[in-house]
Amino acid sequence: MRWVAFTGAPTRAECYRSLATRDGAQPVRSAARWRVLSNGSPSQETAVLRAQSISSTQAVEAALLGTVAEPHEGGCKTFLEAGFDSQDMHVLGEEDIDYLEQSLAIAQAAPPASASDETQDASRTADTQAGTESRAQGIFGIDLFMIIPLKRAHEMLKQHGQFGASISILAAIIEVTELRELSTKRGTNKLVTVEVWDESGSTLRIAAWGDVAQHWRNTVRRGDVVHVNNIRLCMYLGKPQGTARYDSLLTICYRTRYAGSQDDQYRPDLELPWRHEPTLRVRRLVELVS
């Protein structure tokens, strides 16, 4: 039995860069990465290992390190919400194995980078750091026809299958967890989860791994209104969860919690002299979370 975990983590050069224009964005493609954690049984027979899930941190720690899968402070409480505890955790079964294999297939479906793409990758600069674009002009690149309300996450999964739904959202960040470094026998990996809320009143937790996790933790804050492209949805214990993929991009549209001049780039003028629907949507979210 092969145990794998999604490590995500596109590098700074591999991220999906927004050109901050009305013409949208140009992708820089690269394969998402997975890590084989174990080719045999884990140390804890009753541990859960769910790739592309918010609870991967607790699951891998329980499986490989023998730790108790209690929810981390400020983190997801999926196990407790599902009625499991450290003595009665979900046993890995055929459904879980199918989940891992299908998730792996989805992540590896990305087209390989061409030679020209690799050249472009090498020239990327710091304004495109690990899947985050933060210029105020990013608002003008939002295509509202592509924005999916979070309340439709269940519906999207039903339409596209448990592993096939990819969405773009416009939402406010209501929680950012601390950066977690997960130590295993094969090295370390970083994980951050971001919980977002939108006008539909629904929430979604998004997992970011590796370099993306590091940069998101250093860049985004509670109260930020963000546009997130290409978040892969999956169903975990009856709830939609999100995972940042190789081509995901988070754009900070507006920062509601001003901390000084360094935040000026995140606070564009939302009082435009003409009607611009993306700006109006951002402004409504700002008013709701301020």
TrEMBL record:
Name assigned to this protein:
Shieldin complex subunit 2 first OB fold domain-containing protein
Region Disordered, as annotated, extends over 110-133
Gene3D superfamilies to which the protein is assigned, alphabetical: Nucleic acid-binding proteins
Read off the InterPro entries from this record.
Answer: NA-bd_OB-fold, SHLD2_OB1
| Amino acid composition bias (Polar residues), ranges on this chain | 122-133
Residue ranges of every copy of the Shieldin complex subunit 2 first OB fold domain listed in the record:
154-233
Under the heading Pfam families, the entry gives: SHLD2_OB1 (PF21669)
